[in-house]
Amino acid sequence: MSGLVEQQFPEWALLPNTRYFEVDSARAGARYAVWVTVPPQYELNGEEHYTLVFAPDGNGMAPGAAPRMQMLSTDPIAPIEPFILVCIGYCGKDAGRTLAVRARDLLPPGEALPEGVEQSMSKIVAMGLLDQEGADLYLRHLRAPAADKFLAFITDELFPMIAAQWRVKPGDHGLFGYSYGGLFAAYAALRRPTLVTRIGAGSPGILAGSSRIFDLYRKDREDDVDHGGRRLHLTVCETELTVPGYYQAAIGAGVSEFLMLAGTQPLKGLTLTSRIIPLESHATGGLASWADYLRTCLPGQPGRSPLAA
After folding, report:
1. What 3-state DSSP class applies to 22?
2. Which InterPro entries does the entry link to (predicted)?
3. I want to staple 205 with a disulfide (CB 3.0 to 4.6 A). Which of 159, 183, 184, 187 is the partner?
């Protein structure tokens, strides 16, 4: 009997129907990793065109969300619309410091720094999450984020590449993000890209009282901007609302403030829905929020699943 023989990990072992790419962005001035996952029926339905769903934080989203997407596409109880998942993450040196690099891409320009964030960098280094160079980079990106450039990369550069290789519908596509990715999703919804209209913001890091999200929202309200045809689904984990501590202040308070603002001063044409994800914490709520987004914003046709009776 032979011992363990280490091999290079094959994508197909974890991510069926997935291809991996790397792409340089002129808009963002960065190189990104991209995972493209097609639904199980993609090859069988040779004439059908599909909705895209973009997801940042791809290094974690691809191995977590792609298998869940495959299962939900054939769920006979709560089916979803078949779609193509496009996860966007980091490669090379950036793959080892995603915590720092994602702050550049996911925070709106001019976003306020959370209180005490500079002091927290030493804790991040002590926990081994980043080395000192990475912590310095994290703080630098927090001070000068560029979600506008990352959004332009998705809509102006990445989408045409995907549409050139896969059968893609012309519009009404999706975007889902969690945590700072959720903050990016909320920002994208208020920037109104015509390409992306079904947006999910899971536990978004909206800083109560000072986030740029509130400025953008109130400006659209004052200008009577039409958000017709756009949907924003916002989720928050139960413990982010109920358990005193960091996430109650960093997530729960801001989400509550945003929902109160949106409920009392709705934007013209915007369909806003929300849900509390029961029991979950910020650390565990990502995939539950992802499934809830899909069932809310990409509902399927009952009986369409091949597993339906």
Report:
1. strand
2. AB_hydrolase_fold, Esterase-like, Siderophore_Hydrolase_D
3. 183
